[in-house]
Specification:
Strand content: under 5%
Number of helices: 6
Structural class: mainly alpha
Length: 187
């Protein structure tokens, strides 16, 4: 009996991460309100990405397991934080949100190091994500104008996540590597 082909959970994780990150940046640069960010944060960036992460566990990919599950939780926590502030439930100040982001910056730094050994596209994605978090940290502690800079920079991060997603999907559909991802930055 032939073995059944399984899908790669990373495509959903990268799609949810990229799309939700992109939409939040549309808000951060002033193009749209916060409503869609909250709902995407709960469902696509949060729940779907977290499920993708849990499925990565079954493939033995600890990097994907940790990254997708954790960033899925990040989106759910951020959406609930925004809902909490909107309804005056467990309100968080700008500084509170800044410390929340600093903790995620430190977490991202750890994954950034791991990404350097996987391939160039992932290393670039995590480099951009780390820079974006640092810009948002600074925006929450005295430099609010950096929110817009972070917004544009994190749009590039989201686009890179989609590039890797497209790389995986196109390789499956075309039966060959269509979009190169480059060598690891650290051999």
């Amino acid at each position: 009996m032939a073995e059944q082909k399984l899908g790669n959970p990373a495509v959903v994780g990268l799609a949810g991460f990229g799309l939700t990150t992109m939409v939040l940046q549309f808000h951060n640069v002033g193009w749209m309100g916060l409503g869609p960010v909250v709902w995407l944060g709960l469902i696509f960036g949060g729940l779907a990405q977290m499920i993708a992460g849990l499925q990565e566990m079954k493939t033995g990919n600890n990097f994907g397991y940790c990254a997708f599950t954790a960033y899925g939780c990040f989106w759910i926590a951020l959406a609930l934080l925004l809902i909490g502030n909107h309804y005056d439930l467990y309100t968080s100040s700008k500084t509170d949100v800044g410390w929340f982001l600093i903790a995620w910056t430190m977490f991202t730094f750890i994954l950034w190091i791991g990404s350097l050994r996987i391939h160039g596209a992932l290393a670039l994605t995590f480099t951009l994500l780390l820079i974006g978090f640092i810009l948002l940290d600074l925006a929450h502690f005295g430099f609010p104008e950096l929110t817009v800079v972070a917004g544009y920079e994190l749009m590039a991060t989201a686009a890179m996540a989609w590039y890797i997603m497209a790389h995986i999907i196109f390789a499956d559909v075309f039966g060959r590597d269509v979009l190169p991802v480059g060598r690891p930055w650290i051999a």
